[in-house]
Amino acid sequence: MTLNDLPDVTFIEANAENILNNMIRDYENAYFESTGERKKLYPGDPIRIFLYTQALREFQLRVLMNDAAKQNLLKYARNEHLDNLGAFSKTKRFQATKAKAKVKFFLSDAKSTDETIPSGTRVSPGNDLYFVVIEDTVIQAGEMEAEVNTECSTEGVIGNGFTPGQINILVDPLPWIDSVENTNTSSGGADKEDDDSLRERIHLAPEGLSVAGPSGAYEHFTREYSTQVEDVKISSPSAGVVDIRVLLTDGELPDQTFLDGLKDHLNDKEKRPLTDDVQVTAPTTITYDLDVTYYIRSDNSDKESELKTEIEAAIDEYIIWQRNKIGRDVNPSEIYSRAIQAGAKRIEVTLPSFTTVGENDVAIVDTKTVTYGGLEDE
What is the span of the domain harbouring residue 106? Predict the structure, then answer.
């Protein structure tokens, strides 16, 4: 059962009209008991107006009390309340981490003595983002290059995805260094875990009370490894074999370093049953082309530029939506829905057509063509 399958819960009724009606009735009854006279509080009566202000205050209090009570339930808890619920299952929120990259330093000339690249030396891909050398690295006499480990100075995903050669600016000059460049794609940076991800891990935590075996247990231990894990697919293609497919944030495919680290994590003797052969891979990719033309109502011509931006952003969001879940069919209906909600009058989707995606596959766009067709009357 998922959390979404649970029924909604209301602890206290919060209806301003009912509260006001009850206050008016109680006042009229109390007035009769006190004076023996019947008094009706009609609209416009000063006392009724005063009771209305008190009814609104009680309504607000009930809303707050209802929300406070819901913070004790996993389905609704957020922020620090969710962290406290996680304590029951020893599930902590992942904190932000910094991306790492290997960077090679090239000397202008071979030196007759050892030279040291000091820790703290900064390199950069530009845009005020820096990667810092983690520890002192000695370049032996006669050597012309050295590879060092660096860490982004800024936490989060901002440091991920710089491909080899893109981190190529030496910020803190060393007179004997000619150039620098990263030799692998920077990775490992993650933002602080959001509530939805933490909530899902807390929900799965009971699966991890024993070693892995059920698919839920393997999913729990996989999500436990990194907050970058967006989706997990667990299957057993043959006896004793556990096939685990992983997607990262925004549908990014994990590199081999991530997969190797995850496999080591899952193969811990306290997690993996002795007889399981755990295989950790990225999902198989299938590609599709996207070719759409969209139109805007002519009576929206005054905000044509703004709508074009929003509609094309919605199409880009569809592309991410399509690739961030394993086994999700290529569904052009989602393009229609997102584009119309963003302000399009209509949209023509030439490609893609509906395509069934295998349970271990993920659909990724190959060629994207988005055309603005212009303004149209109703």
Answer: 98-182
